[in-house]
């Protein structure tokens, strides 16, 4: 639609948009949605419940209030994600088992694989760092790929196997910690940094890693979560008996499951989701207190992370320890401007952005009762939450780079690189801020603004039951 100039054009465009919306509403009323089992969704961004009509493949339904995606229907059914996850698993094996890089200096030649990174970290006594690297670049992706294949193969064959629902939940959770794409960036940064120190040849693992990143992103795009859950329902592999009717309108006490998104009325005895077995909570439990704790811990550790060296380059017997900021300065001094910008952004700006962003969201949420403040930029804050939750993983690029450099440059007296204690603190900051974002429930911001009805109004709620919101005390 062409937008006209001036107020008359704008008014016409607005009228056209309103007309289009009215037409969509009329079409929905004339043809009530059929075909999908659970059509009422609760928005995980704002808590608004709404009917999502049956979507065509490739379509996405967004929340009318905050714009968060409610349901995305992927094209390609089960076959496409299954094929892509199997391909991912094969590439993953190549990435871990073949040569990553051949480095040489003064006639000494080293072949390194990806395993050398964590191994060298353990050798230097930095085992927490080795554990974090191994978990995010090996264990979590492996668990995710195997879990997805375990669920998708029986779904394709129409077979019921034990544990489909918990395995699918677990695989999705592992996806948060699987950081192969960040590892690829870490390899790239390490490769560029080493350019003038040693001679390097790239091995097959690097190409496989590049390919793996593309295939994994594609697989995640092709996976239709709700379709998988409905497939699990059809096979009867759910945790309990899933009710046929959507509970909306039937019972105001229905709760949206954080694990699978199903709205159901919690059972009096066990209070678990009938589809996936997750414990049902109207809002993430103790969200405010837990998020504050992780934000505080992250903020405190941010100081040693920047004060202590993350890397020491020992060349001809002389050591040069450098901090995160020092590393950026070195890159600037060697005229690697784009790389300096990247490291500055990922390692210095992103953690600060996350801590401040979450701090603001928490503070405003605790101002329940003050309508003007709690409604200020509510929609933008909800979008900010999802950005904060997504961006944090990219800070791991520094950790992966340090782990690789430590493994690649071990040439005795000629040149060695040792990751420092600052890297351990920095890694803790990254993991703590990821956890903080996971514990925060953005729906609480809309509750605090009084937009989710009396049931979720923080000042009316019994503090010992239901979703925990710390009310600022009047004193
Ligand atoms: Zn919403
Ligand atoms: Zn569930």
How would a crystallographer describe the biggest sheet? 4 strands, antiparallel
The total count of helices amounts to: 16
What is the CATH architecture assignment of the domain at 285-452?
Up-down Bundle
The radius of gyration computed from the alpha-carbon positions, rounded to a whole number of angstroms, is 25 Å
Which whole number gives the mean pLDDT?
Answer: 86
> What is the rounded distance between the termini?
55 Å
In total, the number of strands is 13
Shape: globular
Strand content: 5-15%
Spans where pLDDT lies below 50 across 5 or more residues: 1-5, 28-34, 460-475
Ligands present: zinc ion
Subcellular location: Cell inner membrane
Pfam families: PqiA
Transmembrane segments: 82-105, 125-153, 174-191, 197-219, 291-310, 339-362, 383-401, 407-435
Organism: Enhydrobacter aerosaccus
